[in-house]
Model the fold of this input.
Amino acid sequence: MRTRTTLLDGGVHSALRAVGAAAKRGLGDAGLAELVQIRASQLNHCAYCLDMHLGIAREQGVSERQLDLLAAWEEAGEVFDGRVRAALALTEAVTVLTEGFVPDAVWEEATRHFDADALAHLLALIAAINSWNRLMVTRRIPAGGTAW
Done:
């Protein structure tokens, strides 16, 4: 088997960072942004992104209880409010696309909690973290890895 590349073009790296940063700023909720990125990274089995975003989430004040229960958010009751639950449901639907599209019910629930601008930024954030996850998992960059 050929060795997997650890290289990532500098322009691609900069562009993806810019998309993620713009999406986070536009969303305006740093804690929610981290929960979304962690949940997508859990689904994609991306140790690198999990390691990074769990640390950032703690710095942003996301509770340990939320971090501990994120993988089972649907069963976690009041730990996650309706807005966070809508964002996590959208994150899962976009990340997995099991039926080839985001279900209308998931989209409608998201529109109840986010205006058009915030929803556009949330969707961009989900797309960005999924891109990062795929780049890191495909290249098998480990948690704490520094190779690009």
Remarks:
- The chain has a mean pLDDT of 95.
- Helices lie at 10-27, 30-43, 47-59, 64-69, 82-96, 104-113, 116-139.
- The two ends are 20 Å apart (CA to CA).
